[in-house]
Design goal:
Keywords: Metal-binding, Nucleus. The protein is an all-alpha fold. The chain is about 50% helix and about 0% strand. The longest helix is centred in the C-terminal third of the chain and has 24 residues.
Length: about 550
């Protein structure tokens, strides 16, 4: 005889539970609550209405997941058949690239280079010892993270670690230039020591001179780092200059713009102690920014804009560590905006209101990448914001300077993903790479560089085969790209080192017949910016040592 199932006991109400009494579960009022003159009982929520998942349903779910995994594995194992072109409206989370529109919208975000899937040798991703065949990941360059790996070895100091480089230039630690910069003295006007806002003395501004400096900034600096809209800035500028200067963020933004307008046209004078163009305007601006940063939590965009421009000023003076410190502060300040929008489930849209935030995030990302590509320094996390951020819009009609900047952003994003593909120690890449695999990657990257060039709008596409009469000289180009001076000098040293080593190779010597002339040009270029005690001065010393040894031994 089948035993009768035990009935479930009634759930006690909150009143009986608190007093640890037996509740009869009567509703709406149990017996004890009725005796206590309670008009209604409160019972805890039960799970009687929840339906448990049966074994058959669980098996069906697992079966569907298995079929999805098999389909994905099959899709991932298919070889790439072509190099598709990009859509004019790039979506960071999408990795399919339909053909470009014949007439792209001029106001749209810059077209991201489509770059077909990076055809990487499977051994670059899968150790040869693995017996089970695994499909290599598709599009590793497109899907790789935006962050430069901490373990990357693309710094100039890392290049000096090779045996061939040591034979030419001597033995140096991999962080030689970071050590030099960390020991470099800092003039008092550039000190990062905070000062109370009440003690900051603002300078007097000559309206005529200030107007000229503003023009310098928007003609020479802002096209390379377009974070400010001139119309918006002019409104702030007129209000600040038209009244006695106050120690606030609006005045700080104006002063740092004026300081950059001075630094952009002033050539370095290494014979003059303390070459600090525009420092009389920069120092009070810096003090206001530092004093405000400690008590500001994303209340205004003026603070991260001012901090970024202050970092840029340090870059113009070849002070990479101070530039990194301030761009790190600017990054943590601007990240309040995407975090707030994410928490409110409101993504940053490509609207006029959000464009200053978008442009500033990208500018901070590029400047930080330029610094950490040359020096191993902590990251601010801005790369995580950029992962899901669209490109800035380029206006309607498109501004050629903005198009050039967007092309640089596109190249930087690709370069960072290449860094991650080649140098991320968390993946099996660095453990299983072979010479043939890297040759395959190199060939594919060369193809993608060509694809990037082909996608440039005609308004900014340079002619690589014919010298233009309007082309800048090397010295003029360095003046225009002053914000990346340290990186440019490091690359100059790296290129000359590689070309010199190539000239010593029986296989490659014919490709570098003018190595002697190139060494002389590089030394002449670097010595103009070799500030006493700077890492550029150390680079100059290494170049001269390399040339002397090359002349003696070869």
């Amino acid at each position: 005889m089948e035993t009768q199932k035990r009935k479930r006991t009634a759930v006690a109400c909150h009143y009986c539970r608190r007093r640890k009494r037996k509740c009869d579960g009567r509703q709406p009022v149990c017996t004890l609550c009725e005796e206590a003159n309670n008009s209604e009982c409160e019972y805890p929520a039960t799970e009687e209405h929840k339906r448990p998942i049966s074994v058959d349903q669980t098996a069906e779910i697992l079966s569907r997941l298995q079929r999805l995994e098999q389909s994905f594995t099959h899709f991932a194992s298919l070889p790439p058949t072509s190099h598709p072109q990009p859509d004019d409206h790039y979506t960071p989370t999408s990795h399919t690239y339909p053909p470009p529109s014949p007439n792209p919208s001029p106001g749209s975000a810059f077209p991201s280079p489509g770059y077909g899937p990076l055809s990487v040798d499977p051994s670059l991703h899968i150790p040869s010892a693995v017996a089970t065949p695994v499909a290599p990941p598709t599009e590793p360059c497109i899907t790789a993270p935006m962050a430069i790996p901490m373990s990357h070895s693309t710094t100039t100091g890392s290049l000096l670690q090779s045996h061939s480089a040591k034979a030419l230039s001597g033995d140096y630690p991999s962080d030689v230039f970071l050590r030099v910069e960390s020991k470099r003295s800092l003039p008092e006007p550039l000190s990062l020591t905070p000062v109370p806002l009440s003690q900051i003395i603002c300078p007097e501004i000559d309206a005529e001179e200030a107007s000229l400096l503003v023009d310098n900034f928007f003609d020479l600096v802002n096209p390379q780092h377009p974070i400010l809209d001139r119309d918006d800035f002019e409104h702030i500028y007129r209000d600040v200059v038209g009244n006695p200067l106050q120690a606030d963020l609006r005045a700080a933004l104006v002063l740092v713009v004026l300081a950059l307008g001075r630094a952009a046209v002033d050539t370095p004078d290494l014979t003059r102690d303390g070459w600090l163009p525009g420092v009389e305007m920069f120092t009070p601006a810096l003090q206001v920014l530092l004093g405000t940063w400690f008590n500001s939590f994303g209340d205004t965009i003026l603070l991260p804009q001012g901090l970024y421009l202050a970092a840029l000023y340090y870059s113009y003076l070849s002070r990479p560590l101070q530039a990194w410190r301030l761009v790190h502060m600017a990054s943590t300040s601007i990240q309040h905006y995407p975090i707030r929008h994410r928490s409110m489930r409101q993504p940053l849209e490509e609207t006029h209101t959000h464009q200053p935030v978008t442009r500033l995030c990208w500018a901070i990302f590029v400047l930080e990448c330029d610094i950490i590509a040359e020096h191993h320094l902590p990251r601010s996390g801005i790369d995580q914001v950029i992962e899901n951020l669209p490109f800035p819009r380029c206006g309607n009609p498109p501004d050629p300077a903005m198009l050039s900047w967007l092309a640089d952003l596109s190249a930087r994003r690709l370069l960072n993903r290449i860094h991650h593909l080649m140098y991320d120690t968390a993946s099996p890449t660095t453990n299983s790479a072979t010479a043939d695999a890297f040759a395959s990657v190199s060939a594919e990257l060369s193809h993608q560089l060509g694809a990037w060039y082909d996608l440039l709008p005609s308004a900014i596409k340079p002619n690589l085969h014919t010298a233009s009469g309007s082309s800048l000289s090397v010295d003029e180009a360095i003046m225009v790209l002053r914000g990346m001076l340290i990186s440019d000098m490091g690359r100059t040293l790296a290129v000359i080192l590689l070309l010199t080593l190539a000239s010593l190779s029986p296989v490659l010597a014919e490709a570098v017949p003018d190595n002697d002339e190139l060494q002389i040009k590089a030394i002449s270029l670097v010595e103009k910016w070799a500030f006493p005690g700077s890492s550029i001065e150390s680079m100059l010393s290494i170049l001269r040592t390399m040339r002397s040894k090359y002349q003696i031994l070869y």
